[in-house]
Amino acid sequence: MLGAFANKIKEIVKKITFKKIDEKEAQKILEELKLTLLEADIDFETVNNIINSIKSKLRDIPPTLTLREYLIKLIYDNLVEILGKEKYSLIGKKKIMLVGLFGSGKTTASAKLANYLKKKGLKVLLVCLDYHRPAAPEQLKQLAEKINVNYLIGKDAYETAKKSLELEKEYDSIIYDTAGRNALDKELAQELKNLSKIINPNEVLLVIPADLGKVAKVQAQEFNKLVGITGIIVTKLDSTAKAGAAIIACSQTNAKVKFISYGEKIDAFDEYDPKSFISRILGLGDLDSLLKKVKETIKEEEIKEIEEFNFETFLKQIEYIKKLGSMKQIISYLPGLSISLPEEIIEMQEEKIKKWKAIIQSMTKEERKNPKILNDSRIKRIAKGSGTSEQEVRELISQFKKMQKIAKMFKGFDEKKLSSMLQKFGFRFKF
Ligand SMILES: Nc1nc2c(ncn2[C@@H]2O[C@H](COP(=O)(O)OP(=O)(O)O)[C@@H](O)[C@H]2O)c(=O)[nH]1
Ligand SMILES: [Mg+2]
After folding, report:
1. Strand order through the sheet with 124-129
2. Could you tell me if the CB of 263 is within 6 A of ligand 1?
3. pLDDT digits 0-9 by tens, 403-425
4. Given 174, 284, 290, 381, which residue has the most CB atoms within 10 angstroms?
5. Is the CB of residue 103 below 6 angstroms from any atom belonging to ligand 1?
6. How far is the CA of 106 from the centre of ligand 2 (A)?
7. Which domain holds residue 66?
C-alpha cells in the first residue's frame, strides 16, 4: 500500500532485525538508508544530517541495548522526525476550508472529516462552495444525509459562504467543500482567494491524492502561496504505490499532513499519526514490538552459539539444570521421549560443581573439545593439576558421558522446537 519507499525501508529493518550485524554491516545498512531517503526526494542536506547523526550516535551504544536494537531505534526516531512528530487534532478549529484540484477527493474528505468530528461529539455543518460542476451540490447532500450531518447548499459560492457565517454560532465546526479545476488556473486562484477573505477560515486544508507521489510537494507549495494552507489531507492511500513518497513530500513542506484517507468508505479516514504510520511502513508494528522482535532473534542466536556438547559447555549446562531444579518435568512435556537425567546432576552440590570446574580448567583445550582422548596418563595429569583425585576425574568423565548420550537423543529431535520449548521454561539449554 505504501509503495516502493515503504518496501525498501521494510527490507532495511528486516536486515537489522533478523540477521546478525556488526559495525561494518551497520555502516552498509546506513548507506542503503541514505539512498532510499534520497530516492524519496528528501533533500540532500536533511538526509546527510540524519545519517551523520545516526553514525555518531552509534559510537556510543547505551549499555542496555545491543547494536541492532540501537540502530533500529535510531532509524525509527529519525523517520518520526522526518514525517512529523505530532499527532494532530482539529478539535476547536471552527471554520475549516478544503481546497484542491478536481477529483482529488475534496468532497469525500469533507464528509469524512465531518463524520470524524461528529464522532468526537461536535455539531458540524457541511457547506457546499462548488457550483461549477452541476452534480457537486447533490454529491455533498447525499454524503451529508448518509452521515446525518447538517448541510448548506445555496445558489453560488459567495452567497453561500456569507450565509454560512450567519449560522456560525449554531455549530462547533463548519466544513467548506470548494470547487476544483484540472490545474491551479487564474480563475480558481481568484475564487479561492475571495472565498478565503469572506470566510476567514481557521484552517485551510489542501487535499492531495497520494498518487501524485513526489509532485505533491510542488502542489502544496503552490497552494500555500495562494491561500496559505495550514495542513494537508492525503487521499487515496489505498490505491497507489506512490503513497509513501507523497506523505514524505508533503511532510517536507511547511504545512504538515494532518489527515489521511485510504478508501471509499466513510470511515477509511484518520488523523495522521506519524508514529503509527511509520509502524505501518516498517511493517513490524511500533518501536516496542520491533525491539522485542530484535531481542527474540538475538536470543535465538545466542542459543545457537552454545557449541557442540563437550566439556566447554558441560559446566554451563549443569548450571542451567541446577537453576531449573528438575529436568524431569520438562522432559515429561516432550512427546515421545522418556529419559531420565542422572540424579547426581540434578542434586549436585555447589562444592562438587566447584571441583568439576577445577578439573575442566586443568584440561587442555583439545581435551575439553574432544574428551575421547582422555587416557590414563592424561587423567593422572588433570587430577594433579586440579588438586583432585583420579577417581573424581573419572567420575566427572562418566557423568559427562551420560549427559552426552542424552544430548545425542535430543539431537534427533527438532532442535528449533526443542529450544523454543525449553525457552518457555526460562531455560537456555541446547544440546
Ligand atoms: N480509493 C479511494 N477513492 C477515493 C478516496 N477519496 C476519494 N475517492 C474517490 O475519488 C473520486 C473523487 O472524489 P471527490 O471527493 O468527488 O473529489 P473532488 O473532486 O476533489 O471533490 C470519487 O470517486 C471518490 O469516491 C480514497 O481515499 N480512496
Ligand atoms: Mg467535489
Report:
1. 150-152, 124-129, 173-178, 95-99, 203-209, 231-235, 257-261, 269-271
2. yes
3. 776 666 555 444 455 555 555 54
4. 174
5. yes
6. 5
7. 3-84+286-295
